[in-house]
Each structure stands twice: as structure tokens, then as C-alpha cells.
Amino acid sequence: MSDTTDSSAAPEGNSKTSLADAIRAHFSGDAPLTEKATGFVKERPWASAALVGVAAVAILNTLRGRR
């Protein structure tokens, strides 16, 4: 009998870690940050929109108390 499991293969993500796996895959490597972000936005537009929305709310809350 031969062992058919390959321990060098990357583990597949599950529903809980698929976003983390996508972020890790897109933002690793030597490409410029703009190309990495563009690739992530093309693959996961809803997640990107949610991240931008959360950042906008955080900035607005930070600036709300200043006059």
C-alpha cells in the first residue's frame, strides 16, 4: 500500500477562513500594493466594499468630535 496523502499541499480553506485565505493569497508576494489590492477587489468586491465602509465609519467617528 502506498500513502496517497501529500503533506506539502496547502490546506483548503473552510467557510470561516476563506476570507483570510483570500487576503493572504492576494497580499503575499513581490507585486506592488496597488496590484495586490486590485486583484483582491476583483475577486471579492463585497468584502472590499465592507472594509471600505467600516474604515469610512471609523474615520467619521474620529472626526465627529473635532470642530
Task: Give an overview of the whole structure.
Helix content is 60%, strand content 0%. The protein contains 3 helices and no strands. The chain is elongated. The model has no long low-confidence stretch (mean pLDDT 77).
Give the tags.
mainly alpha, 67 residues, 3 helices, 60% helix
Secondary-structure class: mainly alpha
Q: Which of globular, elongated, flat, extended, rod-shaped describes the shape?
A: elongated
The pLDDT mean sits at 77
Radius of gyration: 18 Å
End-to-end gap: 74 Å
Helical run tally = 3
Strand residue percentage: under 5%
Largest sheet: none
Helix content: 55-70%
Q: What is the strand tally? A: 0
Q: Give the helices and strands as they follow along the chain.
A: HHH
Regions with pLDDT < 50 over 5+ consecutive residues?
A: none
Strand and helix map with partners:
Layout: H1 18-26, H2 33-43, H3 45-64
Helix pairs in contact: 2-3
Structure at a glance:
The protein is mostly helical and 67 residues long.
